[in-house]
Structures are given as C-alpha cells and as structure tokens.
Amino acid sequence: MYTHVFDIKNAYIGLLRKGQHIYGHLGELSKENFDLILEHVEHVLAVEVPTKKARKKIFSVIIESLQNLHDYICDACALEGLTDVFVCINKDAHAYHIYTGNFLMRKDFNGVEARIKMVNSLTKNQLRELYRGILSYGEASESGGAGLGFIDLAKKSEEDLVYRCDKVDEKIAFFTLEIVVGE
Amino acid sequence: MGNYTLKPTPKTPKLSFDKDSGEFQISGRSIPENSIEFYRPLMGWLDDYLKKPASKTVLTINLEYFNTSSSKCLVEVFRKLENIRERSDVKVRWHYEEEDEDMLESGEDFKKIIKIPLDLVVSDSY
Questions:
Q1: What CATH number has the domain bearing residue B34?
Q2: Which of A143, A153, A158 is most worth mutating to test chain B (most B CB atoms within 10 A of its CB)?
Q3: What ipTM goes with this model?
C-alpha cells in the first residue's frame, strides 16, 4: 500500500502554532460545511476582531478563498480520498493571516502558480486596472468567476500572496495559500 | 409581465424590481457559489422589461458582501440597462459604508466601465 508522505493534519497543526489562532477548519468542503464555515467565521470575527473594516475584509477574503478552493477540488484527488481542505485565521502583532490548503493535480499547479506570480508582480493600481479590464471584457467561467479570484485576493492582501506546494504523489500535490489582512 | 422579487438568504441578495415605477433594488449579500445560475431568471425578466421600460429606471445597489462571480453578473445587469438609456432615464445608486473602502472602490470601478450614470452614496447601515 502506498503511504502518502504529506499529512494535511501536520500541515494544519503547524499553522495553528503560528501566531494567535482565531479560527480553523480541517475537513471536507461540502455545501453544508461551506455554509457552516461562513457562519462560524462571522461569529468568531465579531468576537475577536475589533474593527469593522478588518472584519469585513477578512470575511470577504474567506468567501473568495473558499469559493476558489471549491473550484480547485479535483475529481482525481477525490478518487484517492483526498478531499479535505483547511482554512485557518491567525493574528500576529500587525495583521491577520488567512491560510487555505487543498489538494490539487500537480499538472494544474503550474497554472495556479503562474497566476499568483502574475498578480504578485503588479502594483495595487495595476491590479485594479486588470480587475476592471476583466470585469468589462472577460468572459465568465461556468461558475461566473472569469478568473477574478486571485486578483481580488491580491487586491485585499497587504502583502504578496504567499504559497507553497507539497508533493503528495506523482500526480497530486497539496497547495497552501496565505493572504495577509491589516488590522 | 409581473414585478420580480426575491427574498434574501444568507448568501443571496434581496431582489426587488418594479416594472411600473422602474425602481430596482439589489441588497444584502451576493455570494452564491454559482452566480450565473442565481442571476439567470433576473436577466430573463430584464430582457422583457427592456421591451417596454418605465420612463425612469433607478437601480439601487446596497450590498454588504459580494463575490467576484457576482460582480460579473452585476456588469451584465448594467449592460442590459445601457440598452434602454435612449428610452428611459437610467441611473445606478451604489451604496457603501463610509469606512468600507473596498465597497467604495468597487463602485468606482463599475462607474468607470459602464455607460450609465452611477452615483456613489454613503449609507449608515445595510
């Protein structure tokens, strides 16, 4: 039997130990879980985050991130039982750090990485122009997104989007994304 | 053709489109997983409205949250309204909370890409 070297639980626990932990979810992202996560996050933010501005930004990032995750959950990963994802919100002295993690096909990672590198290379004004351009002329995807997800996250993030990719096996990888929201 | 109304849910907005007064409203949260599916019936209703619009059409948008896929659908709604600006006095009123820079920025972005007047309106509450 093939044993996966990568363990999502270890990756998740590692994040819980970074900074002050505010919220975390590890498990499948079914429609029910999706709605529950949003409900829990909103409740936690109301208690833990003092400014409405930060609460709204974090919640917006969570919404977009979860929908991004939903779009990237792949059939091949599901066949191997790799349907778990994680979402985690931590706080340090200066900002809130939102982490998401999901399995994806290694061949799909190149496209994801290229998009993140592209948005990271742009200034906030350039991101805004790109967003407007796609909104105005881009074709919507099946779910309606038109590839705006990473651009929106980059617009809202205080810093570059941080990502890493861990090899799971020859076909599948685990992708972690970090978005930083100011206080 | 009747009016088009839809009650809000935690993930979808209240839709209130009155064909006689031309007063339209989208308010609450627009974060459905599939925005195209959610907005499709409204697009169909708008196509009928465009055939015989009211003399004045005012679309008020007062959203707390919206996802990127909804933003694409909002542009489609605006594009439809652009088609009647010769026959109806069309205006969009985009509400945002004073401290909500992202919502203000979104309103400014829409204002730049659409061909109908869009007023940015500061609101106290949703």
A1: 3.30.750
A2: A143
A3: 0.90
